[in-house]
Amino acid sequence: MNIKTKNMSDAEVSCTNCEACCCRLEVRIISDTGVPDRYVEIDQRGGSRMLRLSDGWCAALDRNTAKCTIYQQRPWVCREFAMGSHECINERSAHL
Prior knowledge:
There is one protein chain. This protein has helices spanning 76-80, 86-95; strands at residues 40-42, 48-50, 61-62, 67-68. The chain is α+β, with helices and mostly antiparallel strands. The protein has one domain (10-95). The strands form 2 sheets. Strands 1-2 form a two-stranded antiparallel ribbon. It has a two-stranded antiparallel ribbon with strand order 3-4.
C-alpha cells in the first residue's frame, strides 16, 4: 500500500486522498450484509469478524487503490464509519 505521510484537517479528507486507515481496525460483523465467506473469520467466542491479513490490513482492501473490493457487501460498521469524522482523523493520525 502506498501510504503518504501528511497532516490533514477534517476538511481535506476526501475519496481522492483516503489512505484507508480504518481498514486496520477490527471489524465485527453484527448483521448480514452479504460479506463473502472468504473475508470472514470466526473468533474464539464464535463471533464473526472481517479477516485481516498478517500485516493488519483488512483482507477485502485492494492494496493498489486503497478501496474496498466488497464495497456493496461491506459490514455495517464500515458503512457507518464516516470519512473525515473524528474517528477517521484519529486513525489517520495514528497510521500516517
